[in-house]
Amino acid sequence: MILVFILSVAFGFLLSRSGAADFDVIQQMFLFQSPHMYGLLAVGVGLTAPGLWLLSRYGRTLTGQPIHLSAKPIHGGSVPGGVLFGIGWAMTGMCPGPILVTLGEGKIYAFAALVGAVAGTWLFGVNYVRIQRYLKLPNLTTGTGAG
Amino acid sequence: MILHNLEPWHFAVAGAGIAAITLTLQAVGNRALGVSTGLEEICSLGSKAPYFGRAELREHWRLVLFAGLICGGVLSSVTSGSWQWTWDAGLLDTRLHLDHASKIAWFVVGGLFTGVGTRLAGGCTSGHGIYGMARMQPGSIASVLAFMASGILTANLLWRVIAP
């Protein structure tokens, strides 16, 4: 848990200083006014990919435990969920990580985004069994996936 | 320019940093990076709904992740100037001139879309965009294409049509 905390602080600091938690930088990405965020995501994915591949081949963590890699199969929520999230990301200029980062930076409206995001998650969770059939979602114990 | 009028880090440095964090979390902590499931962990604290009782949420490690992200934001702000509460939201201010109440409403509504959307899709920019894309997971590729297309459409509609 100490490791998780240290990495999370580093992640938050990095999201702040890289512009990934900045309203205007996110709009510039969506408006194709700057290649910055596309470059960031490409380098991030490009370097993470071989690392995770090697770890999956090795099969263990560096402390010797069997590794648990997360699989993300496609399901009925993948595309509609993405569409809704895209609207939210463009409106607020924050994806979930930066909601917390900007809160730390002192942006008051990040509270509002966090309240909205938790309320949206709650709405989704309490209605899961009701919408599961129509949207072809995985069974409840699996959920839509961790991410 | 970002916080306190700083220039953002070079994208390659930032991208490499994100990869290093994702890989260390997996290689040492044995956990897959993903922020949005933490929203479910918050709900699991106060809701008895079966969906929030899933085994995935029981460890609550993402609450530590949330606390760390907030601290990272504080640290970034403090080390680059003076920390203070602010309402500044860049383009949103210069184009829409919202008063404080309307701004809160705007961000609550946007947050609702993000909350429902990321949980329906099973991930956000970190879980799908970085981790899932790096593993070429079909669900992540579908979600990333959907949220990038939708974000591009929404932003263009907002800043080039509605409030140019």
Domain tally of chain B: 2
Mean pLDDT of chain A: 96
How many β-strands of chain A, per DSSP? 0
Helix content of chain A: 55-70%
Give a short account of the largest sheet of chain B.
none
Strands of chain B, total number: 0
Please give the oligomerization state of what you see.
Answer: heterodimer
- Which blocks of ≥5 consecutive residues of chain B have pLDDT under 50? none
- Terminal Cα separation of chain A, in Å? 18 Å
Helix content of chain B: 55-70%
What can be said about the biggest beta sheet of chain A? Answer: none
Structural class of chain A: mainly alpha
**Topology as H/E string of chain A?**
HHHHHHH
Radius of gyration of chain A: 18 Å
Counting H and I runs of at least 4 residues, what is the number of helices of chain A? Answer: 7
List keywords for this structure.
heterodimer, A: 147 residues, mainly alpha, 7 helices, globular, B: mainly alpha, 66% helix
Could you write a compact summary of the structure shown?
The complex is a heterodimer of chains A (147) and B (164). By secondary structure, chain A is an all-alpha fold.
How would you explain this protein's 3D organization?
The complex is a heterodimer of chains A (147) and B (164). By secondary structure, chain A is mostly helical. Chain A is 67% helix and 0% strand. In chain A, 56% of the residues are buried. The mean pLDDT of chain A is 96. By secondary structure, chain B is mostly helical. Chain B has 2 domains: 1-85, no CATH class; 87-164, no CATH class. Helix content of chain B is 66%, strand content 0%. Chain B is built from 7 helices and no strands. Chain B has helices at 11-27, 37-46, 61-78, 91-96, 100-121, 125-134, 138-162. Chain B is globular. At the A-B interface, helix 1, helix 2, helix 3, helix 4 and helix 5 of A face helix 1, helix 2, helix 3, helix 5 and helix 6 of B.
